[in-house]
Design a protein that fits this description.
By secondary structure, this protein is of the alpha+beta class. About 45% of the residues lie in helices and about 15% in strands. It is built from 11 helices and 10 strands.
Amino acid sequence: MRQPKPLPPTVRRWAEQLIGPVVSVRDASHDWDRSRVWEVEGADGVHRYVKVSPSEKFFTRETRAYRYVVPTLGHSRAPQLIDSRAEDLALLLTAVHGAPAKELGLSAGDWRAVHQQAGALCARLHEAGELGRADRVEAEASLGAAADGAEKYLARAGDRLSGGEQRLVRDHAAQLRCVGPVPVGYIHGDNQPRNWMVSEGVLAIIDFERTRPAARVQDLVILAVTQWIDHPDRERAFLSSYGRALTDAERHALRCLTALDAVNCLAWGPDNNDEVVTARGRRTLDRLMKEIGS
């Protein structure tokens, strides 16, 4: 069992300057080493969250997202930023009610309802204001940047991929550079049910450290290879409230991105003892290899 991570004393003192004495602390981190999140209860009985970002890049992305992008989701549909402290890469956030969708044992109908709400919230996020010049440049270069990462992940994955699988990944990276224009905007960056909080049937989204300007279709990759591959009804529910069908270029990009996600999973998963991520990558590659061989 993972040992609970202690809330750093300097971060606790900073939080208490803002909300008063903290009477209880619960480690709420994900099961990976660099995740550091705590649920804190104040003397007023209110629960809030303290997060220490894993890097300056993630801290900058997340604080910016909470200030300028997340408010478009609406009240109670995401945490709110109370304050941030750059010296410790720390954020103090309000809590949203509920539990992660993946932990709730939802029925088929409930899953469709969750995906329908997720589609509507993602549309709001993706359309959160006009992109500034620098953000638009970053967004329009995002598919090329994803393709550029293929060789790094292939090197890290090594012989976990066969020669044929390596060629498949390189081919999809090359195709990704040629898909043509796709809609861009602000994406969540880790859009999946572990970050979807459900309370009495109402969905909220958390964890915005990967929020950035990018091709909007990049926010659908994890869903495509986990939720939608076996449950096309969930995809239909999501897109019905997302407000539009994916373009042909987006569909092509999505397929290419799933191949890159697979090699990323097979590079990261085994190195971090994450069997779920590893299995996700292996399953995707097996499926893509079978499709090109049929």
